[in-house]
Amino acid sequence: MSIVKIKDRTFRTSISESEIKQRVQELAAKISRDFEGKNPLLLGVLNGSFIFASDLMRAMTIPCEISFVKLASYQGVTSTGKVHEVLGINEDLTGRHVIIVEDIVDTGRTMKQMVESLGTRQPASVSICTLFVKPDKLQEPLNIAYAAFSIPNDFIVGYGLDYDHQGRGLKEIYTLYEEDGTEK
Fold first, then answer.
1. In angstroms, how far is CA 91 from the centroid of its own chain?
2. How far is CA 151 from CA 9, 104, 124, 179, in A?
3. Which residues partner with 156 through β-bridges?
4. Helix (H) / strand (E) containing 37
5. Residue among 104, 101, 95 nearest 124 (CA)
6. CA 91/CA 67 separation, integer angstroms
């Protein structure tokens, strides 16, 4: 187990790089089967999903396209509860199969808002693909078709996820860890 210090916080390894790679491969295979012949549009949610979206797309075996949207709802280690669109979608979604690629779904507010917003643009379908879901924190009913990991309500960094803009480049997932041995 590895421990890293990011700014004023300590984190320890909770999910290895090999576990992440395996789950991304499994999701890519499932999506490739489910969308065979459909050329889906992967819609990555910046900033956290950029590594996951890239690895997912490269592992897929069907033609697909990718675009990104930037939403903001976090400040430090907690969600503000308000979702702001910072960078919007420029593609015509009419008749397209859209797969939202998110790093983490916790309360579900961001996903609910995105699905509702995308639905007004007449896509053929909208699916949710997330690297992590926190079922104990989920407050909105969502149909998450593709989830790599179900995790407890801990704060995590690495593989695109950050703490105050740091830690995104870590190859493993690290959980916030207090010196007294407890996870936060």
1. 20
2. 20, 10, 31, 21
3. 175
4. none
5. 95
6. 8
Please tell me whether the overall predicted TM-score, pTM, comes out greater than 0.90 for this model: no
Q: Do the bridges between strand 173-176 and strand 9-15 make them parallel or antiparallel, or are there none, so unpaired?
A: antiparallel
- Give the pair of three-digit tokens for residue 175: 């959980």
The β-bridge partners of 101 are: 44, 129
Q: Which of 55, 67, 64 minimizes the C-alpha distance to 25?
A: 55
**Structural tokens at position 120:** 């007004």
Q: Which residues contact 165 (CB under 8 A, 6 or more apart)?
A: none
Residues 142, 143, 147: CA angle, nearest 5 degrees: 105
Q: Judge if the upstream peptide bond of residue 153 is cis by omega within 30 degrees of 0.
A: no
Catalytically active residues, by annotation: 106
Two structure tokens written together for 82: 């308000």
- Unique residue bearing structure tokens 């007004």: 120
Tokens of 39: 């050329």
pLDDT in tens, the chain (184 residues): 799 999 999 999 999 999 999 999 999 999 999 999 999 999 999 989 999 999 999 999 999 999 999 876 555 445 555 655 545 688 899 999 999 999 999 999 889 988 988 999 999 999 999 999 999 999 999 999 999 999 999 999 999 999 999 999 999 999 998 755 555 5
